[in-house]
Input
Amino acid sequence: MTTRIETTIATKIEHQIPSALLQKKVQVTVVGCGGTGSAIAAGLPYLHQAMVALGHPHGLDVTLVDGDRITRTNCVRQPFSESEIGLHKATVLATRINLFWGLGWKGVPHFVEESWGHETDILIGCVDSRAARNAMTRTQTYWNCHYWLDLGNNADSGQFVLGQPENQRNKARDSRLPTAAELFPELINARLDKKDRLPPCSALEALEQQEPFVNQTLFVNQTLAYQALAMLARLFRYGRLSYHGGVVNLRTGRTTSLAVDPVLWQRMRTQPADSELLTRKGRKVVRQ
Output
């Protein structure tokens, strides 16, 4: 006979990875190859190698998607050189990674549209507008993936959220991870894009909009990317997670995790003030 004992210690809830992702080559699609997307792309080979070394049968197969071409402004805060100006970001990054690591990952120089149906297991969004997020959530790729990892930032803070879209693969799961769009609906409200600051048109403006004279804010993209990659590494290493995202603030040096907690999720959905306390600027973050 088992007796339930009530204590004041909170029960730890953990998310379990779908077993299929531990047995197959994991298809990863990164949408957006700017400041955050390029940092994610640079870190994924390390995750791939670690997975294989720890016994995963196949590791990752990655596709980078972005229709943008490299401009002179990009060469200030993104890993591109002046000799690459005019080339597509996705193609340049994929070629660079393949040459260095001996991989066969793909670069797709196109923007994502609703008709896009690339098959993937983990969709990583590093886009620079709410409209782009909205479009991504209406693609066949989104409605067939296991996970959507969304990242976004402003000058000195940002958020990353790993969720499971309520699609054919995930809707039957009892403990499905809510997505960034479910917890923060304004992140996919395209009408709010008009209220956001326009992208900088020069290298100087790009730096000034990222808090001039505070050097650490130059690394907000990399900080977010490596926090998200570390979370994925834990998921594949241990098969479970006790958190599925977080908010990073480089101005204060504070990082707040988003726990796997249905009670917290419900409160965030029904009491916007509480979720705002958790995310601070995260509710208004969309820029890369």
In short: The two ends are 55 Å apart (CA to CA). The beta strands are 15-16, 26-31, 60-65, 106-108, 122-125, 147-153, 157-163, 240-241, 243-249, 254-259. The mean pLDDT is 85.
